[in-house]
C-alpha cells in the first residue's frame, strides 16, 4: 500500500462505515479475515466491492437469480403500502394465504391433474379419431371411467346394503330395549333386597328381645 493512501481518519465517515461493513461481509463469504488494513483508499474500497460482486456472481446460478427476482416481485406485490384500503386487505391476505400453502396447493393440483387424465384419457383418443381437437362437456361426463359398470354399484348391492342397514338399526333398538329392561330389573332387585334386609334386621331384633 502506498504511503499516499489516506488513513481511516482522512476517509469520510460514510466510507469508514462502508469499510467495516465490507470487511465483515468479506469475512462471511471467506474472502478475507476480519483484520482490516490500517489504511484504505476510496478506490480500494470500490475495487474490493467489485471483486466481491464478481465473486458472488460467479457462485450464483441462473435458477437462483430467477428465484430471487420472483421473490422480489412477490414481495413488492404483497407489501401493504400506505395506499392500501380496507377493500384491498382481503385480497392481500388471500395472496399471502395462497403463498403460505403453496406446497399443499401444488400437491392438490397434481391430484387434480391425475383425475383429469383419468377422465380424459380415452376421451382424447376418441376426439382425435373423430378429427376434433377439443372435447365437449358430455364427452367428459360420459367418460369410460365414470360410466363403466366396474366402477358403479348395482341396484341389487344397494338393496342388500339397505337391508343390512335396517337389520342393524333393528338390532340396535332391541339392544336398547334390553338395556332398559335390565336396568328396571336391577332397580327392582335392589328395592327387594333393601326391604328384605330391613325385615331381617327387625326380625333379628325381635327374636333377641324375647
From TrEMBL:
Keywords: Coiled coil
Coiled-coil intervals: 161-188
Protein name: Dynactin subunit p22
Species, as recorded: Nitzschia inconspicua
Upper taxonomic lineage: Eukaryota, Sar, Stramenopiles, Ochrophyta, Bacillariophyta
Amino acid at each position: 500500500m502506498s504511503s499516499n493512501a489516506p488513513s481511516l481518519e482522512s476517509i469520510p465517515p460514510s466510507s469508514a462505515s462502508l469499510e467495516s461493513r465490507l470487511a465483515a461481509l468479506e469475512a462471511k463469504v471467506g474472502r478475507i479475515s476480519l483484520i482490516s488494513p490500517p489504511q484504505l483508499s476510496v478506490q480500494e474500497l470500490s475495487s474490493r466491492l467489485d471483486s466481491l460482486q464478481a465473486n458472488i456472481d460467479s457462485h450464483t446460478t441462473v435458477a437462483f437469480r430467477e428465484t430471487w427476482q420472483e421473490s422480489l416481485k412477490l414481495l413488492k406485490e404483497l407489501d401493504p403500502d400506505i395506499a392500501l384500503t380496507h377493500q384491498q386487505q382481503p385480497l392481500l391476505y388471500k395472496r399471502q394465504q395462497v403463498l403460505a400453502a403453496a406446497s399443499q396447493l401444488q400437491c392438490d393440483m397434481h391430484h387434480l391433474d391425475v383425475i383429469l387424465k383419468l377422465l380424459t384419457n380415452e376421451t382424447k383418443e376418441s376426439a382425435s379419431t373423430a378429427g376434433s381437437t377439443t372435447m365437449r362437456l358430455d364427452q367428459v361426463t360420459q367418460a369410460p371411467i365414470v360410466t363403466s359398470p366396474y366402477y358403479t354399484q348395482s341396484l341389487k348391492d344397494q338393496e342388500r346394503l339397505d337391508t343390512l342397514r335396517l337389520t342393524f338399526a333393528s338390532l340396535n333398538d332391541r339392544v336398547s330395549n334390553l338395556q332398559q329392561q335390565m336396568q328396571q330389573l336391577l332397580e327392582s332387585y335392589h328395592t327387594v333386597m333393601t326391604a328384605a334386609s330391613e325385615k331381617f334386621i327387625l326380625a333379628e331384633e325381635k327374636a333377641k328381645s324375647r
